[in-house]
Amino acid sequence: MLKLLLASLGDLILSRNALALENLALRQQLLVLERTNPKPAFNVLDRLFWVALSRAWSGWRRPLRLVKPETVITWHRKGWRLWWKWKSRPRDPGRPRIPYEVIELIKRISRENPTWGAPRIHGEMLMLGYELSEATVARYMIKRSGRPTQNWKTFLRNHLGETAAIDFLTVPTVMFQTLYVFVVLSLDRRRILHINVTRRPTAEWTAKQLYQAFPFDEAPRFLVRDRDGIYGYEVMRAIGNMGIEDLLTSPRSPWQNGYCERVVGTLKRECLDHTIVFGERHARRLLMKYLDYYHGSRTHLGLEKDTPDGREVEPVELGTVKRRPMAGGLHSRYYRDAA
């Protein structure tokens, strides 16, 4: 390119005849080049030169020999498109990325509120200061089939004060017999309302236990139970007579009666698994002692580390810490001695 500029300056100095002869010599050389290499390669600078020359000189087509004038025009149009593509490029290409914590929050809200759709969750996200579209919320929320409904956990939480649950557990005796323990649990404060032991559980016996657990007008509104065959016609009639709505769990779904299943496991792990039961009376006595500890001393995670009967906090100023054995020594109650 520098050589070309120097040659142009030299052309201004040469005489008109000498310039005409030099142009004739250059044209003859171009004819030879066309015969030997009909399609020479043009680099980027060559193309820019001819594009600029076409814009500055109206007679640029006359000396053009190696390419067609249409090719130079194509170069110009292609360069124009590239220029405007570069000039109009977005500063931050693509859609903005959604932070991971926002995605997790959308899933959490959708999981905790199964009846909420994308518009409702989107409104909640806007109130929390997140600027995003409703389509983004719909993309990341939990997908559900059918009509959205609350789950068992939500239902039980909304009706804990009016719901009870029942279940059976088995206990082996020293003589290899099997005892059946019937448990009635109030879901409000995890209180065991009634417990009894028998060797021959029948529908009549179970119905009698329900009447004893809910005397007078103390029956709950809902009763959660599984599909055990022990709950026969007499049990159904007793539930109906007390005005209780029977809530059956799905087949092979013990988690739907999770509160009572947890209590059954607690009775086994913390009491019955550590003793050898001689008979019904012995099992009943062991369970009564454990219930005294369970209701008044044992802290529960679901009750924010409180007890079903409620337990007052004893400040340090009351005195030293002492131990009281409970449930036959299996467990302990710690208290402060004011003396």
| Shape estimate | rod-shaped
Report the total helices: 12
Low-confidence stretches: none
Head-to-tail CA distance between termini: 107 Å
Averaged pLDDT: 82
**Topology pattern, helix = H, strand = E:** HHHHHHHHEEEHEHEHHEE
For the record, the count of structural domains works out to: 3
Report strand order across the widest sheet: 3-2-1-4-5
The count of strands amounts to: 7
Task: Let me know the CATH homologous superfamily of the largest domain.
Answer: Ribonuclease H-like superfamily/Ribonuclease H
Structural class: alpha/beta
Give the CATH level 1 class of the largest domain.
Alpha Beta
Strand content: 5-15%
Q: Would you write up a description of this structure?
A:
45% of the residues lie in helices and 14% in strands. With 339 residues, it is an alpha/beta fold. The protein folds into 3 domains: 2-87, no CATH class; 100-141; 155-309, Nucleotidyltransferase, domain 5 (2-Layer Sandwich). A 5-stranded mixed sheet has the order 3-2-1-4-5, sandwiched between helices. A two-stranded antiparallel sheet has the order 6-7. Helix 3 crosses helix 4, helix 6 (118-127) packs across helix 7 and helix 9 packs parallel to helix 10. The longest helix has 21 residues, at 16-36.
